[in-house]
Prior knowledge:
Blueprint: E1 2-12, E2 15-26, E3 30-34, H1 41-48, E4 56-61, E5 64-65, H2 71-77, E6 78-81, H3 93-98, H4 113-125, H5 141-154, E7 159-163, H6 171-186, E8 190-194, H7 198-204, E9 207-212, E10 215-220, H8 222-225, H9 228-235, E11 237-242, E12 245-251
Parallel strand pairs: 3-8, 3-9, 6-7, 7-8
Antiparallel strand pairs: 1-2, 1-4, 4-5, 9-10, 11-12
Helix pairs in contact: 4-5
Amino acid sequence: MSLKLQYATVTLEGAHLLQAVSFEVLKGKLVGLLGPNGAGKTTAVRALLGLQPLSSGSAQLDGQAADSLSAKQRALRVSYLPQARKLAWPIAVREAVALGRYAYGGPMGRLAPTDAAAVEKALERCSLLGFEDRAVTSLSGGELARVHLARALASHAPALIADEPTAALDPGHSFDVLATLQAQARSGHAVLVVLHDLALAARFCDEIILLNQGKLVVQAPPVQALTSQTLADVYGVSATWNAGHLTISGRIASSEP
């Protein structure tokens, strides 16, 4: 399984959201998609999923054109955890997680044994045992984020894309989410995660894809991608590596008057 953009360009109303971006996410890898606000991260994710038309270039899911796949075909290949993930109906947590199994065709409320087992395992992995009967509308933002991650894991798709899955989470649960995504990659899945936390990305990701102003800056292991000079150029921050850990010490003072 692989997720691939090749010279992908997205231009909307004269604005270049992506400019000839090429990268690939392979199975067994946890890859962080990083960049400042407006760098093109969500556009790249939507292009990969065939949800954002390309002006030129291609997007492929396991060698097939992403925009040629039906919603069901796409769901069987890649599980998507979007940035905006509100749930307006007071369904139970178990029901929300079971939505990850819809592509397999089972009727809601009557899960097949394999579906039920996938849901139960996902609840366990996301520390949601004991929450099964709670209404999703009664949960905190952090708890709801874990429900959505469990839904994505329950799908058992060979690839997973998560757009800012640690938003609204405290540091401890953010750490747990990245550890869960890392384990998902280690089990043979291709995992792409959009992050803003550079230190967390450096700690868990096998590779970093760094975008800036719609262009690919680098795709490489964290220590090669997140160099002091690159982070100064892209983010305007001072950063150092020490014993394999990345530390952001602050904003670089501007020389402009």
